[in-house]
UniProtKB/TrEMBL annotation, chains A, D:
Gene3D superfamilies, A to Z: Acyl-CoA dehydrogenase/oxidase, N-terminal domain (1.10.540.10), Butyryl-CoA Dehydrogenase, subunit A, domain 2 (2.40.110.10), Butyryl-CoA Dehydrogenase, subunit A, domain 3 (1.20.140.10)
CDD domains: ACAD (cd00567)
Species of provenance: Aurantiacibacter arachoides
Cofactor: FAD
Domain Acyl-CoA oxidase/dehydrogenase middle, first and last residues per copy: 141-200
Protein name, per record: Acyl-CoA dehydrogenase
Stretches that traverse the bilayer: none
InterPro entries: Acyl-CoA_Oxase/DH_mid-dom, Acyl-CoA_Oxase/DH_mid-dom_sf, AcylCo_DH-like_C, AcylCo_DH/oxidase_C, AcylCoA_DH/ox_N, AcylCoA_DH/ox_N_sf, AcylCoA_DH/oxidase_NM_dom_sf
Species classification: Bacteria, Pseudomonadati, Pseudomonadota, Alphaproteobacteria, Sphingomonadales
Coiled-coil stretches noted in the UniProt entry, renumbered to this chain: none
TrEMBL record, chains B, C:
Protein name, per record: Acyl-CoA dehydrogenase
Keyword list, A-Z: FAD, Flavoprotein, Oxidoreductase
Acyl-CoA dehydrogenase/oxidase N-terminal domain span: 3-127
Coiled coil start-end: none
Protein origin, superkingdom: Bacteria
Pfam hit, one: Acyl-CoA_dh_M
Stated family: Belongs to the acyl-CoA dehydrogenase family.
Length: 378, 394, 394, 378
C-alpha cells in the first residue's frame, strides 16, 4: 500500500474539511469556553458528526457504521485538531469502538449503534496517576460467581463526566505491575457506585476523575476474556495514540497556517517579517518536521488497518514524533506572533493549549521514546 | 578588607535572622506572593508589611543606591554578601519594583538633582509604584516608529496616544513613558516623560492573556498635561535613556532563568513522577532532559553572577544585557516546559483547587511572553550579532 | 492485481534467495564494501562480481527503467515489492552509481534517443562509472556564478576551467558537467555536457578530507574537445537539466538518514556501554538521547517511504527533495554524533586495528559533508521557505 | 570573589596568549601530524612551557612552582586549546600535580621539581573501559607487607607512552564498584611489568593503554592513605574536568574566531555570507552559549582554588556545559565554512577533532549530566 491517501480517502478529506471548518471552527471553541459550558463540548456538533457518519467511521457496516479504518479516522481527527473542535471523538469513535470491536456480538449490539447514531459518548478510563502508566492497573475487580465488584479510581478521562459508557481497565488477578490479570469492562456511567468529577483543563476541555466504590457488573460487561484484557488494552492504546497524533497534526498545521499568514502580513522595520531569513529557516525546519510526523502517523494507521505486528511500535513512534513536531509548531507560532499571540483575544494561544493536552494524553514523547527503547531491547 | 567583609557578613546574617519574619522565608508559591508596594497596595499579610518596613528603614530595598537618595550605600562587595545571605536564608524579596530595577538606574544617570530627590526615596520605600510605557500597537520590537505624541505647549507638553503591554498600569501610581516630541526625526525625536497616572486624561484597560491573567494593560492618553520639568534627560534624547533602561530591564527579566523561587525542577518532578527501583526519577527520558537542563541552569546561574559582577565593575559590553535577556528567558521557557511534562495530566488542570487554580499551566503560558516582552529573542540575537560579533548589515 | 503482486513477491523472494550470494547478505562494514563498477573496477570478491552480474542480467540494477534501455520495466508497485524483499533478505545493493541515481533520470527526461541508447544500458550493467562536475572553487552553493567555459568551435565545444568536489573523479569513466556557453547570461547561459574522462586535457587531483580519505577531486579541463551531440538538453538550458538532477541527488543523499547499513545505533551502543541492572543501556542520558533519536529515525524511514511512493506517483512537490535532503543529512550527522558518544575513547582511535583503522571517527567526520555537498542545509531551507511556504524575498 | 579575572590573572593571560600563539600555533600541530611524530607532542615546546613557569603553575613556591591556582591553569589551558597545541599539560601540570599535592613531602620532592623544570611528563591512568567510569576500579594492588603488586589494565591515558610518571588508581580492598578500598599510586613508567602501547587518536594526539603485570611498588609510592584514595581521586578528577573545560573553551573560541572571520569575508549570491540573518542568529546563539560555558568553568576553578565544597558539582557542570557549547561551536564552524571546511588543507577540521577528544576525556556531557542528577538525588 503506498504511503499516501488513496482517492477515496482524499475524497473523504475533501468532505470532512469544509464540514468541520464550518460547523465547529475555532470560534466555536471560544464561544463554548466563554460560556463556561459544563459539558466542554457541544452535543449538537456531535450529532452533526453522527449524521455525517464520522462517529461510525470505524464501526462495521453490520452495526450501522462506515466500516472504514484508522487512516479515515485520522482524517477526521486531523480536521478536529485543525479547528480545535472540542469533541469526544477520539475516546468514543476510536478508543471505545476499537475496544468494543474486540467484544462479543451482544455487547457490540448494545453499544455500537448508539455510538453511530451520536447518542452515546464514551470515555476511556485507563490511567490511575497523573502520568500515563496504563501498564499499571491497580483498580480491583473482585469476582463472585458471575459478578464483578469494581473498586478504585481512574483519572484523566476526557469528557468522562458526560460519558454514557466508560471503558475501564481493572485488575482481576495478580498485582499492579503484572502483565497478566487485567480485564477490560464496559461500564455504564450511571451504574451505582460510580462517582465522576470533572476538571476543566487548560484548553477548556473537560477531563474526569472516576471513582468506583464496589460497582457491580456481571460477565456481560467484560470485553474479551477475563484476565486477558492486556491485548485489547494494547490495541486500544495503539489506536488512540495514532489518533491523538493525527489530532496533534491538525493542531500543528492549523497553528502553522495562521503563522505563515501572519509572517506574510506583519511588517516590522519596514519589511514583511516573513522575509527575514532567520524566520524563514525556522519555518522551513518546522514544515519538514511536520511532514515527518505526518508520514509516521499515516504509517502507523495503515499498519493498524492492515493488522501488521509493527503497528504497536509505529503508534509509539507516531505519538512521540507528532508530540515533538506539534510542540515545536505551537511554540514557534506563539513566538513568531509576538505580543499579540500572548493575548486571549487572539486564537493562537488556543493551539498551544490544545497541543499540550494532546501531547500528554496516552503518553508524551518521553514516555514513548522510553517505550520504544524497551521494545527494542535497550 | 576581607575581615571587614566577614564581619559585615556575620552582622548581616544576624540582622536578617532577627528581622525577617519566618513567613517571609518560605518559598513564594505564585505571583500572588510578590509585594509590589505603591499607594493602593494591600499587604497580603502582616509579615509582608513588616518585612518591607524593616528593610526600607535599613535602606536595603536598594542596598547599593547612594544614601542621599534612600539607598543603603553598600559597596559592590557588601551588596553581593547581602544577596548571598538573603539567598542562603531564603528570604523573599521585600519589594518587587520597576522603579528599582528600571527607572532608578536611569534617574541616577540622567535625572536632575530635584528629580532624584523627589522620586528615588519613594521608590526605595515602596511608596510609589511605577509602570513603563514603551510599546505601542504598531511599534512592538520597533520603537523607532513610536506614535504617541507630546506637543510643546510652552510650560507643558500635551500628550495624546496609546500604549500597550504596560505592565500593571492599572495598579501603578506613576508612569515613565516614551513619547514623540519631533515628528520629523525617527529615534532622535523621542523624549522620556514621567507623570502621575492620576493626571486627567490617563486611562487603562487590562489585556487578558492566554494564561487567563491580566498583568498588562492598554494605556490611553487623552490631552494629558505634563509639566516640562518631568522630562528625564534632554528633550528629543529619550532614546538614550530608553536604551540604558532597556539594558536594566533585560537584566531583570534574564534573572528569571536562574534558580527560580520555590522547589527546584528536580524536586517538583520527583513529587510527581516518583522514583524507580534504583532511586532515580521514574521516567528515564524526562530525567535525562531535566539533567541536561540542570547543567544549563547551573551554568546560567554562574553566568548571571559573572554578569552582575562585571556590571558593577563597569567591564561588561552593553550588548551583553541582550545576551542575558535571551538566555534567561529561553531557559525559563524550557523550565516550564519540563515542569509541565513532569506534572502530567494534573499540571493541565486550570481551575481545580488541587492545582492551585491552574498555577502550573498558567505560569507555563505566562513564561511564553518572556522571550517577547522587553525585546524579542530575535531582536536580542540581532543585537548580539551586530554589536558584539560585528557582523555586517544585509 | 493484489494477487499478481503477491505472486511477484513470492517469485522475487525465491529468485533472490537463490541468486544472492550469502556474503552479499551480510551488512556492509564500511564504504569499502560498496560496488561502484566501471572500466577499471576491481571486484572486492567473487561474490560481489557475481551479484552484480546476475542482477544486471535480470535488469534489476534499475528495476523501474524501461526495458529498451536496459531497465527491468517494473511497475511502481512491483519495484516497491522488490525493494521490500531486498531489504527483508538484507541483500546489499549490487551497484552504487551516480549514473543510476542522477544521470539516468535526466537522460530519460532530456536525452535524445541516441544518447539514451548509448549510455543507459552501460549504466545499468555497471560498465561505465560517471561523476558529476557542478561545483567550482567560487561557485559552491551558488551555481549561477559558474565560470568553466565551453567555446563554440563549430562542430565541437572547447572546454576550459576547473571543478571541485567531483566525487571519485579519479575513478570515473565519464563526467556530466555544467559549463558556461554564454558569458553574458547568468543561469540561462549554462549547458550540460557529457564526456569521457579519458579525453585529452582532463586531469584530476584528489582532495584530502578531514576524515583522512579522498572521495572528492579537483578536476581540471584544459582545451578539452567535446562533440556537440554530447550536450544533454538544449544549449544554454543546462540549468533545467541540473535542477531536475539535483532533486534526484538530494533524494539519494537523504536516503542516508534512514536505517543505515549494519547494526543499529542501539545495538552498537549496547556493545560499547553494556547494560545496567535493569537491562537498560548503561548510560541513562545517552540512552534517552538515543531513544529520542530513534523516534526521529523511525519516523524518517516512514517519510522516505512516503516520499518515494509519492515520487513514483508523480504527486510530490519538486522542492520536497530539498526537504528530504535536509532531514536525511542532518539525521545522519546526529546519528554519527551518537555513535561517537556511545563508542567512548575507542571510537576516537584513528589507526588501530581494533578500530578498523578509525572507521567510526572517519565515518563521523565524513558525515559532516552530508549537509554541505549537493547543496547545503541552508540552501535547502531557503528553497523550502521560498518554493513551498512561499515566503517573500528580503 | 568577583567572577572575572583579577588584574594579575589578566596580566598572566596577556603573557600566555602571545607566547603560545607564537610557539605552538595550529601550524605546529599540523607539522607534528604530517611528520607522524610518535610522541604526539613536542618536548621542545614543553621545555618552553617550563621556562615560562607554566608547568609549575599549580606547584607551590617551596617546590619551585608559581604557587598559583586553577584559574591560572585554566588561562594556560584555554590558550593551549585555542592553538590546538598538542601538550601533556592537563595530565601533568594539573592532574598529576594536584595528585602529588595530596602526597607526603618526600613524594612531592621526588616529582614536583622535575615537573616544574619540564623534565617530567605524567599520565593519568584512571579509566579501565572505553567509557569514562573512574568510580569503577578493578586494577588490583595486593599488599604484602610494605610491598604492593599491581595487576590490571588502564586505557585512554593521554600521552601515557611518553610519560615518566603514571598516576594509577588501584583497588587495595573491596570490589570493583565499592566506594572505599581505592588507593592512588605514583608509578614510574619504566618500572618492571609496565607495558604501554600508544594509539593515535583522531586529533593526532596519542593515548596509551597501560598493562600492569605484577608491578611491584613499596609504600612510598602511595599517594595519601591506603584505601583512602577516593578523596584524592575525586579532587584530581574535578580539577582535570574543569581544566578540560578550559581547553575546550579555547578550542571553541579559536574555531568561532576563524568562523566569524570567514563569515565576514566569504561572499555568496553577491553578499558577504555573514550578512545573512539565519547565520547571524546562529552565531549570536553560539556566542551566548560560549559565554555561559566560560562562566561555569571559571566558577568551578574559583571554587577549586577556594576549597569550596561545591567545586565537585561545579566541575561537572563546567565539563558538561563546555562540552555542549564547544560541540556546537565546532559543528557550526565546519558547517558555516562549507566545502572548504571539509578539507584537510584547511585548519577548521582540527578544531572539530580536538573538541571531540576533549569532550570524551574525563567524562562527556551525558556522563556529567547523569552525575549531577545523582548528586542532586534524582
Amino acid at each position: 500500500m503506498p504511503l499516501f491517501l488513496d482517492p477515496e480517502q482524499e475524497m473523504l478529506a475533501d468532505t470532512v474539511r469544509p464540514f468541520i471548518a464550518e460547523t465547529a471552527p475555532v470560534a466555536h471553541l471560544r464561544s463554548l469556553r466563554d460560556a463556561g459550558e459544563p459539558a466542554g463540548f457541544s452535543r449538537e456538533v456531535w450529532q452533526g458528526f453522527a449524521e455525517m457518519g464520522f462517529t461510525g467511521v470505524l464501526v462495521d457496516e453490520a452495526h450501522g457504521g462506515l466500516g472504514l479504518g484508522h487512516v479515515e479516522a485520522g482524517i477526521v481527527l486531523e480536521e478536529i485538531g485543525r479547528n480545535l473542535t472540542p469533541s469526544p471523538f477520539l475516546g468514543t469513535a476510536v478508543g471505545a469502538v476499537e475496544a468494543l470491536r474486540q467484544a462479543d456480538e451482544a455487547m457490540q449490539v448494545a453499544w455500537l449503534p448508539g455510538i453511530v447514531r451520536g447518542e452515546v459518548v464514551a470515555g476511556l478510563a485507563l490511567d490511575e496517576s497523573a502520568r500515563h502508566r496504563p501498564e499499571r492497573v491497580a483498580l480491583k475487580a473482585e469476582r463472585h460467581g458471575n459478578t464483578f465488584r469494581l473498586s478504585g479510581a481512574k483519572q484523566f478521562v476526557p469528557f468522562g463526566h458526560e460519558a454514557d459508557l466508560l471503558i475501564v481497565s481493572a485488575r482481576t488477578s495478580g498485582s499492579e505491575a503484572d502483565e497478566e490479570g487485567v480485564t477490560l469492562f464496559a461500564l455504564p456511567r450511571t451504574q451505582a457506585g460510580v462517582t465522576v468529577s470533572a476538571q476543566r483543563l487548560a484548553d477548556s476541555s473537560m477531563a474526569a476523575r472516576v471513582a468506583l466504590d464496589g460497582v457491580e457488573l456481571d460477565g456481560s460487561a467484560v470485553i474479551g476474556e477475563v484476565d486477558g484484557g492486556r491485548a485489547v488494552l494494547d490495541r486500544v492504546l495503539s489506536c488512540v495514540r495514532a489518533g491523538a497524533a493525527s489530532e496533534m497534526q491538525g493542531v500543528a498545521e492549523g497553528a502553522s497556517a495562521m503563522t505563515l499568514d501572519y509572517l506574510k502580513q506583519r511588517r516590522q522595520f519596514g519589511r514583511v517579517i516573513g522575509s527575514y531569513q532567520a524566520l524563514q529557516h525556522r519555518a522551513a525546519h518546522l514544515y519538514s518536521e511536520l511532514e515527518v510526523a505526518r508520514a509516521a502517523t499515516l504509517k502507523a494507521q495503515q499498519s493498524l488497518d492492515a493488522g501488521s505486528d509493527t503497528a504497536d511500535r509505529e503508534a509509539s513512534v507516531a505519538k512521540a514524533m507528532a508530540g515533538m513536531a506539534s510542540g515545536l509548531a505551537v511554540r514557534e507560532a506563539v513566538q513568531m506572533h509576538g505580543g499579540i499571540g500572548m493575548t486571549d483575544e487572539y486564537d493562537i494561544g488556543f493551539f498551544m493549549k490544545r497541543q499540550r493536552v494532546l501531547a500528554e494524553m496516552f503518553g508524551d514523547t518521553d514516555y514513548h521514546a522510553d517505550r520504544l527503547a524497551r521494545m527494542e531491547g535497550y | 578588607m576581607a575581615d571587614d567583609l566577614e564581619q559585615f557578613r556575620r552582622e548581616t546574617r544576624a540582622w536578617l535572622e532577627e528581622n525577617c519574619p519566618p513567613e517571609m522565608r518560605e518559598p513564594m508559591r505564585s505571583e500572588k506572593d510578590v509585594c509590589w508596594g505603591g499607594r493602593t497596595w494591600t499587604f497580603q499579610s502582616e509579615a509582608q508589611r513588616r518585612w518591607l518596613a524593616v528593610m526600607a528603614e535599613r535602606c536595603w530595598t536598594v542596598p547599593d543606591w547612594p544614601r542621599e537618595y534612600g539607598g543603603g550605600g553598600l559597596s559592590p562587595a557588601e551588596a553581593k554578601v547581602l544577596r548571598q545571605e538573603i539567598a542562603s536564608l531564603g528570604c523573599r524579596k521585600p519589594l518587587e519594583s520597576f522603579g528599582i530595577s528600571m527607572l532608578g538606574p536611569a534617574l541616577l544617570k540622567y535625572g536632575t538633582e530635584k528629580q532624584r530627590l523627589e522620586h528615588l526615596p519613594k521608590i526605595a520605600r515602596g511608596e510609589i509604584r511605577w509602570c513603563q510605557g514603551y510599546s505601542e500597537p504598531n511599534a512592538g520590537s520597533d520603537l523607532a516608529s513610536l506614535a504617541t505624541r507630546a506637543e510643546d505647549r510652552g510650560d507643558h507638553f500635551l500628550v495624546n496616544g496609546q500604549k500597550v503591554w504596560t505592565s500593571y498600569a492599572d495598579q501603578a501610581d506613576w508612569i515613565f513613558c516614551l513619547v514623540r516630541t519631533d515628528a520629523a526625526a525617527k529615534q532622535r525625536g523621542i523624549s522620556f516623560l514621567l507623570f502621575d497616572m492620576e493626571t486627567p486624561g490617563v486611562s487603562t484597560k487590562p489585556i487578558r492573556l492566554i494564561s487567563g491573567n491580566s498583568p498588562f494593560c492598554e494605556t490611553f492618553f487623552d490631552d494629558v498635561v505634563v509639566p516640562k520639568d518631568q522630562v528625564l534627560g534632554a528633550v528629543n534624547d529619550g532614546w538614550s535613556v530608553a536604551k540604558y533602561l532597556l539594558g536594566h530591564e533585560r537584566e531583570m527579566i534574564s534573572g528569571m532563568g536562574g534558580r527560580a523561587l520555590g522547589p527546584s525542577l528536580p524536586e517538583r518532578a520527583l513529587r510527581r513522577a516518583g522514583r524507580d527501583a534504583e532511586g532515580r526519577l521514574d521516567d528515564p527520558v524526562l530525567r535525562a532532559r531535566i539533567a541536561l537542563f540542570e547543567v544549563r541552569s547551573h551554568a546560567f546561574a554562574a553566568m548571571s553572577e559573572r554578569f552582575m559582577d562585571r556590571l558593577k565593575a563597569g567591564s561588561v559590553h552593553p550588548a551583553q544585557a541582550s545576551m542575558m535577556k535571551y538566555l534567561g528567558t529561553e531557559l525559563n521557557k524550557d523550565r516550564h516546559e519540563l515542569l509541565m511534562a513532569a506534572g502530567g495530566s494534573e499540571a493541565l488542570e486550570w481551575e481545580s483547587e488541587a492545582s492551585h487554580g491552574g498555577a502550573a499551566a498558567r505560569a507555563w503560558l505566562r513564561s511564553k511572553a518572556n522571550s517577547i516582552e522587553g525585546g524579542t529573542s530575535e531582536i536580542q540575537l540581532n543585537i548580539i550579532a551586530k554589536r558584539i560579533l560585528e557582523l555586517p548589515e544585509a
